[in-house]
Amino acid sequence: LSVILMLIQQCRFVRKKFDESGSPVETELTIQEYYKIQYNLSIKYPELPCIAAGRKNKPTYIPVEVRYNS
Q1: Digit-coded pLDDT (tens) for 7-18
Q2: Long-range own/partner contacts, residues 8-13 (CB < 8 A, 24 or more apart)
């Protein structure tokens, strides 16, 4: 694991989903937006950094508050 020294609201990634016809749709999201959509979780401390886990070329960003409050 490594700590990304970026504000959570600055961490962005492209989310790929498929529409009804099977065509890929890409949407750029912040980590705050993703956690709200995916887990209905509001990030309370966006000034804290993210933890980057997983592959270097495709990290999984985990807000510090989520990691330590789980």
Answers
A1: 777 778 888 899
A2: 8/32, 8/43, 8/45, 8/46, 8/47, 8/48, 8/49, 8/50, 8/63, 9/46, 11/50, 11/61, 13/61
The pair of structure tokens assigned to 30 is 């912040």
27 strand-pairing partners: 15
Sign of CA dihedral 26, 32, 36, 39: positive
Tokens of 6: 């970026």
**Host H or E run for residue 25:** strand 24-30
Q: 32-46 pLDDT, tens per residue?
A: 898 999 999 998 888
Q: Is the pTM of this model over 0.85?
A: no
